[in-house]
């Protein structure tokens, strides 16, 4: 093994550890807090977390074994099962992120009708659709024998060994990525840009009130005035940073792998093995980053985990009033704070 192989193996081991720990923490918070469980986004986060955990304990270790041994881990039947799971879990994760963005869009843009438009039953139907959508492609690939070990990515995934099936397999792969990666990306961009527009509108309203207050308070200390103006500037930047994080992590993690798959099918020349494995590791890194992007950095999950730690340490929680549900004002504050 050269230095590239060692570096990629260490990178994947680190991602397995982070992904396993962070997703387990999210799952514990969901099971511990009844307020998190009763919220509609909690169902989407649960679905996403379960997909990430399965990817972490099944697909990532076998890809690591494929990297270290430079060959297929296990027999063909195991590889077909793993390839089926990877295709299903990846698509389900992407669609779950799209569902979360739709929920945030409805909550912020249509606050008065949110509880009638996005009920728990509606969320369950959306999750059911993501499962049907996600399972259709690996089922078709399995029936056509288009699942196997791909040496370029050191993993069991969509793969056809027969040269005469190159054209239909290329069309199938293109449609699969269009209805998984591209569809989710378009939904993310549409919904979060709408949310950003509403957040900026509220920031402008707050800015107007702040400026009017500063004008009226002529005796205010200059340092207080400067802090108000600085907070006003930070408020405008927070919404953009959060939206950029949601869309940017999705694009950064999945785009290199998807583009490499499409280039591989249309490009005659060889593609670097190390780049193929690196693009696969980037796709896996989404499972490690999702808990922080969507859950653990939110105040509600921080409070829940601190309460769990306090109970474990037998100190009790300082604030035991419980976690409150998200309202429209909380959704706006989550975007702007």
Automatic annotation (TrEMBL):
GO MF annotation terms: G protein-coupled receptor activity
Membrane topology qualifier: Multi-pass membrane protein
CDD domains assigned to the protein according to its UniProt record, in alphabetical order: 7tmA_GPR26_GPR78-like
Predominant location: membrane
Transmembrane segments: 6-32, 44-68, 126-149, 169-195, 243-263
Span of domain G-protein coupled receptors family 1 profile: 22-294
Domain of life per record: Eukaryota
Key words of the record: Cell membrane, Disulfide bond, G-protein coupled receptor, Membrane, Receptor, Transducer, Transmembrane, Transmembrane helix
Residue ranges of coiled coil: none
GO terms under cellular component: plasma membrane
One BP annotation, GO: adenylate cyclase-activating G protein-coupled receptor signaling pathway
Annotated signal sequence range: none
Subcellular localization, as worded in the UniProt entry: Cell membrane
Record InterPro entries: GPC_Orphan_Receptors, GPCR_Rhodpsn, GPCR_Rhodpsn_7TM, GPR26/78-like
Protein's UniProt keywords contain Transcription regulation: no
Pfam families registered for this protein in UniProt: 7tm_1 (PF00001)
Record carries keyword Transmembrane: yes
Function description: Orphan receptor. Displays a significant level of constitutive activity. Its effect is mediated by G(s)-alpha protein that stimulate adenylate cyclase, resulting in an elevation of intracellular cAMP.
Protein's name according to its UniProt entry: G-protein coupled receptor 26
Organism listed in the record: Phascolarctos cinereus (Koala)
């Amino acid at each position: 093994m050269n230095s590239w192989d060692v570096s990629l193996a260490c990178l994947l081991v680190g991602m397995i550890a982070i992904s396993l720990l962070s997703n387990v923490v999210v799952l514990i918070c969901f099971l511990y807090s009844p307020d998190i469980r009763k919220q509609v986004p909690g169902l989407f986060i649960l679905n996403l977390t379960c997909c990430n955990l399965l990817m972490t304990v099944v697909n990532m270790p076998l890809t690591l074994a494929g990297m270290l041994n430079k060959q297929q881990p296990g027999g063909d039947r195991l590889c077909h099962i793993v390839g089926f799971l990877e295709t299903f879990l990846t698509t389900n994760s992407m669609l779950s992120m799209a569902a979360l963005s739709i929920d945030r869009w409805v909550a912020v843009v249509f606050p008065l009708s949110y509880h009638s438009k996005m009920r728990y039953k509606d969320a369950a139907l959306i999750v059911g659709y993501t499962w049907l959508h996600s399972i259709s492609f690996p089922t078709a690939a399995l029936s056509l024998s288009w699942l196997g070990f791909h040496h370029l990515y050191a993993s069991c995934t969509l793969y056809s060994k027969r040269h005469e099936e190159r054209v239909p397999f290329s069309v199938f792969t293109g449609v699969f990525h269009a209805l998984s990666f591209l569809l989710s990306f378009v939904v993310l961009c549409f919904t979060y840009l709408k949310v950003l527009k509403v957040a900026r509108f509220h920031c402008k309203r707050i800015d107007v009130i702040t400026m009017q207050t500063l004008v009226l308070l002529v005796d205010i200390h200059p340092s207080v005035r400067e802090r108000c103006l600085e907070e006003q500037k930070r408020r405008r930047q927070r919404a953009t940073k959060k939206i950029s994080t949601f869309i940017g992590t999705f694009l950064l993690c999945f785009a290199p792998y998807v583009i490499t798959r499409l280039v591989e099918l249309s490009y005659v020349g060889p593609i670097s093995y190390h780049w193929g494995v690196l693009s696969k590791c980037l796709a896996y890194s989404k499972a490690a980053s999702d808990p922080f992007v969507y859950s653990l950095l939110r105040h509600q999950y921080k409070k829940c985990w601190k309460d769990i730690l306090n109970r474990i340490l037998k100190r009790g929680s300082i604030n035991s009033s419980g976690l409150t549900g998200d309202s429209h004002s909380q959704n706006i504050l989550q975007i702007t704070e």
